């Protein structure tokens, strides 16, 4: 086992409210810090990366493609914006635009405050009513609304919510039972947030990704899909670990790693070269400081 004493000391010294950390190498637990009980916690935007797995399965089944547009799936709501060019019609947004968050909104739809205010609104219709500020595919703008629409597209094409679709295909094989995932209006799995799992369950998801979708001899997710979504698909303009580029519902990290992450410090870091998964649950807004401590105090031990 790794000596995690320095990491734990630095977390305490920096006042970072980290609950649990698990480190797997070659599929084996090699490091663990528990500063609280490892209970299921809200995963915020880590949920996006699970939604992305449903997309890969739906594409494999021929139900969707990266070029599928919102108009293809929701023709009743994709009315034309008279003032907009054909290339600026929200109905022309593709699944790929949504996955890499390049949909052309300056102010992304469905931030949490807006979601609370729009509970009684048809969210699909609302999203498609919003004009685009620039052509899609040109610029990254982080958007939970994009992931909500991804979830809606999957549901419309496979005939199940993302949660129900993933239970036999992903959650059950990983041993994640009694899945709790928030539902949006129209009965859509929220997709962008709302999943509750613990750190140990999150580490299993990371190991699945590291193994390119393979789990106990069964290919749960197409390997090519895992490769595709965890590679840089668009540049972003952040700093540190938020400036390394974005895949499809995954962030790229420094140190040639990638991650699912969620607000207040949930992380599922996957580093293919050293064959490492680092799963973290926290309630901490200084998320870069958590990652800095990982790179400083855990990474050299690997």
UniProtKB/TrEMBL annotation:
Entry's Gene Ontology molecular function annotations: hydrolase activity
PANTHER family for the chain: BETA-LACTAMASE-RELATED, BETA-LACTAMASE-RELATED DOMAIN-CONTAINING PROTEIN
Originating species: Paenibacillus odorifer
Gene3D superfamilies, per database record: DD-peptidase/beta-lactamase superfamily
Keywords: Hydrolase
InterPro entries recorded: Beta-lactam-related (IPR001466), Beta-lactam/transpept-like (IPR012338), Diverse_Enzym_Activities (IPR050789)
Lineage top rank: taxon: Bacteria
Protein name: Serine hydrolase
Domain Beta-lactamase-related: 21-282
